[in-house]
Known about the structure:
Keywords: Membrane, Transmembrane, Transmembrane helix. By secondary structure, this protein is mainly alpha-helical.
Amino acid sequence: MGGVAAWKGVRTSVWSGGLLCVGAVGLLALCLPKPMTYDVRTNEHALRQREQRAAAAAPTPA
């Protein structure tokens, strides 16, 4: 840890780490497009969970 800071300085270390982080997030967004298009309103699993919770919360007739 701290290899870049020891080699090039703290400022360069912070900048390069930030740029690498942004690049990694962009790469993941390109490689994993499905999470980017997830919609809780249309996802079949989320709809099923919502229905189960609504049924469990509904009052039962006595």
